[in-house]
Specification:
The structure is a single chain. Among the domains are: 17-52; 56-119 and 161-244, no CATH class; 317-351. It is 83% helix and 0% strand. It has helices spanning 12-47, 49-52, 58-118, 125-129, 140-143, 145-151, 159-255, 264-271, 275-353, 363-371. Helix 7 runs antiparallel to helix 9 (275-353). The longest helix has 97 residues, at 159-255. It is elongated. Residues 225-244 are annotated as: Disordered. Residues 228-244 have a biased composition (Basic and acidic residues).
């Protein structure tokens, strides 16, 4: 193996590689040392009993739990307020859309009324300016070749009979179309009546179901109230029995005890208990009875308050649930009514816009009247 003095590094890359390797080794050693130090510190902190007891305070834990519960309640309250705001915005949006649809329908209704009453062919200004039946001069230019033939004594086919036949056919078509429209209207009325009956039946079933659920809840509430009263009565009897037993025990210890029932002279001569110490024992036992009685009364009051709070929370939850069910049923009813109105409007629009018969009246039909004025 060559000595250090005989080693020759031939390139710059090898020099940089050697420096990089040594640097990485140093960093790895430092990292391992830091991990060892950290583990040793954690071990010392865990094994040190004085360190382990730092922060072990029941008051602080209860305060932290109270803060967490308050934060959770605030989050629930904020979520409830956000949900209420969203529901209000949805209701406002639905109201705006409903008003927009009503306004659109009103404009369309007015437009159709104006079109049917003011925009017919005979009501237009152009019709009066270009009336085909106005008085014309009797010549070939205005009356046509048929009039000239009649004036000349020739026979011309009876166009008036043809026109009467065309008019009769058009009237029959109009009558058939009116019958079809009446039949469609009757079907629409029947469909609307069935829809109303379906909606009313569904609402009646939902109301009956809600009434049955409400009656069951009311019966359950009455049963719970009765059971709570019985439980309170039982607790009261037990409390009275406990107080009676406690007083009986006190009486037994006060009047049946051999230590306290002896005479004053005997107690002083043989037992060494003076009268003031005897009275102190009696007072101490009486205080114990009073403390036990107060403790039992406080416990009963706390249980009664907890039961009342639980009952109030349950009633509030039932009330909120009933209100939500009522809102849901009203929303469903409104949605059904809106769908029914939209369906009726669409059917009416389809009947108006659907072409039952193609129009047989052309411009040539009016030209025939102009050319047969002589008949």
């Amino acid at each position: 193996m060559p000595s250090l003095s005989t080693i020759v590094i031939t390139s710059k890359a090898e020099v940089e590689s050697a420096h990089e390797t040594s640097r990485l080794r140093v960093e790895l050693a430092k990292k391992l040392q830091r991990k060892r130090d950290k583990r040793a510190e954690i071990s010392d902190r865990l094994l040190d009993p004085r360190t382990r007891q730092i922060g072990a305070s029941v008051t602080k834990w209860e305060k932290q739990l109270a803060e967490k519960e308050e934060f959770r309640q605030s989050q629930i309250h904020a979520a409830r307020e956000d949900r209420a705001v969203l529901e209000e915005l949805d209701r406002i949006t639905q109201q705006i859309e409903r008003e927009h649809r009503e306004a659109t329908r009103e404009r369309e209704k007015l437009a159709r009324y104006h079109s049917l009453n003011n925009l017919s062919k005979t009501a237009r200004r152009e019709y009066f300016l270009s009336d085909p039946k106005r008085d014309l001069s009797i010549d070939m230019e205005h009356l046509g070749p048929s009039a000239a033939q009649v004036f000349a004594g020739e026979f011309v086919e009876d166009k008036k009979a043809t026109q009467s036949e065309i008019v009769r056919g058009l009237k029959e078509q109009e009558l058939e179309k009116e019958v079809l429209l009446q039949r469609e209207a009757a079907l629409e009325r029947a469909f609307a009546e069935l829809s109303d009956l379906d909606v009313k039946t569904r609402i009646e079933l939902e109301n009956r179901e809600e009434d049955s659920i409400r009656a069951g809840r009311r019966a359950l509430d009455e049963f719970n109230c009765e059971m709570q009263q019985k439980r309170k009565e039982k607790e009261r009897r037990e409390r009275e029995d406990a107080e009676t037993r406690a007083r009986r025990d006190v009486d037994f210890h006060l009047y049946q005890s051999g230590l306290l029932s002896e005479s004053i002279g005997t107690s002083s001569d043989f037992k060494g208990i003076p009268l003031d110490e005897k009275q102190m024992v009696v007072d101490w036992q009486a205080r114990q009875v009073d403390e036990k009685r107060e403790r039992i009364a406080d416990e009963n009051d706390r249980r009664a308050r907890d039961a009342a709070e639980a009952e109030a929370q349950r009633l509030e939850a039932v009330k909120v649930h009933d209100e939500q069910e009522l809102q849901r049923r009203r929303a469903a009813q409104a949605l059904v009514e809106e769908n029914r109105r939209l369906a009726e409007a669409q059917n009416k629009e389809r009947i108006r816009t659907e072409e039952v018969y193609s129009s047989s009246i052309k411009e040539t039909f009016f030209d025939q009247f102009a050319k047969s004025a002589c008949h």
